[in-house]
Amino acid sequence: MSNQLWPRLSRVPARVLYEERRRVDVQRLAELCSPDHPRRTYAATGGVRVSDQQVLDLVRDLRQVAADFGYPQSADDRNRIDFDRAAAEVLHRRMKLNTVEAANNEVWNFLALVAAPDLVRWRWLESDNAERWISSDRTRHMFARLWWQALTFAEVAPDGNVDFTLLRSLNERDLNALTERRSIGGVPRLARALARMVLTDGERDTGASVLLRQMGPFLRRRIVFIDFASLTDDQIDDQLRAIRAAMPRGTRRETPSPSTESDDPSGQGQHPVDLSILRGSSTRRFDPASQVTSSSTVEFKRDARSAFANGRPTVVDVCSGAGGLILGLESAGFNPLLLLDNRSIACETLRTNRPRWNVQQLDLLEFAPGEHPQLRGVDLLSAGLPRVQASATINRSRGSDLELELLKSTIDLFGTLQPQAFLLDNLPGLATQDQYAPIRDYVATRLSELGYDHQWLVVNAAEYGVPQNRPHGILVALKAGVMRAFRRPEALSQPLHTVGQTLRDSMTTGGWSQADQWAALANRPAPTIVGGSWDRGGADLGPTGSKRAWAQLGVDGATVADDPPGPDFVFAPELGREGLVQLTVEQVARLQGFPPDWVIAGRKTARYRQVGEAMPPPLAEALGRAIAAVLTPA
């Protein structure tokens, strides 16, 4: 790589441009493309600035590639993915970046918002995700992710020629699996070695995400002691072959049948859960020495007594999101030691509301507890994990096994920390439905090996003061012998809170005079609020059935408003959507049980996603109090 310096655009003007251009069509954006901007900057030292013509040449080449796949007309998913592969090669060839320059988000802000916004709109036509335009996570930005993929999988021959065979051969899911894990994507030769393993005849049907889940625990242990970046290609291959050979029999995944890879044709039920990745793992006995030394385990227990004796019980919360679970646990008396989430916008929400909290933006799969000594003494591990294999998320680009992988990693973390208690929030079906029984069996085996008893619960937030019919599947685990003292939190005896009671006052803040009429119709709890996909679409209140239920409450469930209704709005449900009230994100947050002063960061869609995915804090508080009641301070 050379030392070319490409133009930059800082976050503030990038945000302004994003708001101006996010709704503009492709043709108009093509007219706005430019190699220059009044707020353009460059790195002060360390290289040679590219010319305006070099910027134009890059955009021209990218646009020519896009034209091969339908630009400027809309393209299907296959053409978009094929464009990604070809565009990655163009970016790698044209942008002679070193990795320090490429790691600067402002470089990618300029390219997406000034130089080639038309290509971003064309490629992500159905997405309202600001991360595609404004770089904060290189795995999600339109151009940054492609450049890094090309850098990772480009094989440079001694004569300087670059071979992109690996990049072209990997499918989207495998590319994501190999690049989104920092410990792997950050060592390109290791990522390429794993890619070659995936592409061999024996592994092609398995795929990178499953292969990495199988090899992950063994590979992570070696990464602690071996600097893979210092090894030769042959040495890396030897290490991977040794890991594969040492893995217990039964850890290889059988080739999935077509039925486990397709959507539920009815669109009504849950997608069949592919549980083959758990085979052979449920009988694997957890070895604490593989994670922490025995002396460290003793220190955990000793510190737990002292920490609890000095005041409030402590908690580590993973996949924290907007903070619904941890906020409720805080109200129940727990002191947060660490909060973990991989989304920058969620971390911004947490830090905005609780600056004193220790919030870390990190993927749970990459988390190393040994680097966080403050975790010693934790009393509770809590986790609001992504819903396991719900039909609405089965086709997400990161791979259908991710949720199960996160669940397994959380159980491993629980075994490492050895807290007094564990609280897991997920979908109700995980606790009750037959298709999830193998997962429950796996969890039961692992917890028993670790010396814990457990209990699955289905609790409805509406019974704990939340104006929403929202069932949750809950797993509570406690040290063996303690579970018999645990009592399910008692439901409140008072009448259920209604949507009208909760939001009536907020409906009047814009001068609307029909709030009482509307509140009288909205005389029951809301249907379940659904967060939706982070990868597509805008904010709405759920699928078709949910929208019908919202309409019966006088609410337009097909959108989320910027402000409460104004004085000129006429409430007339008989007219259909135009006569129904639209809720704001703040109002949805109130229906989710968040206090009025809890600030949700980001733009409207991102804020709604965070609220919709959260556990209602009142429900979390009830569960936290029930757990705290059986914890022992000594």
Structure overview:
- With 634 residues, the protein is an alpha/beta fold.
- It has four domains: 1-169, no CATH class; 172-257, no CATH class; 288-494 and 617-628, Rossmann fold, CATH 3.40.50.150; 499-612, no CATH class.
- Helix content is 42%, strand content 8%.
- It contains 26 helices and eleven strands.
- The strands form three sheets. A seven-stranded mixed beta sheet has the order 7-6-5-8-9-11-10, sandwiched between helices. Strands 1-2 form a two-stranded parallel ribbon. It has a two-stranded antiparallel ribbon with strand order 3-4.
- A hairpin with a 5-residue loop joins strand 3 and strand 4.
- Helix 21 (499-507) runs antiparallel to helix 22.
- The relative contact order is 0.08.
- Mean pLDDT is 82; it is low at 250-307 and 390-400.
